[in-house]
Specification:
single chain
Length: about 100
Amino acid sequence: MKLIEDKFSTWDRDDAGMLMFRAVEAGLASAAFVNREALHRVWREVDMDRNGTLDFVEFLCLVFLWPTMGSYRDFFSKEENERTVSNAFIILEETFKQYEL
């Protein structure tokens, strides 16, 4: 969750607690996601209050819905993305270990 919070904070440059479409689009493009049409589709689904911005909860929805809408085709061509995903899985594994019986 920390990785997602950090990404939200990075893209929320004015600390308004909201993300504009362009900020998310630019952030995804820097990570090799360039499918604007898919982003529009998922944005319409997760912008629950229809104000044109995403708060953190809506952003979480976007993060979890994106794999069903977007493309990972070019994502792993960037070494930093590979590291980010690897770190995310390490964090998830550690988190899930807390709940094992």
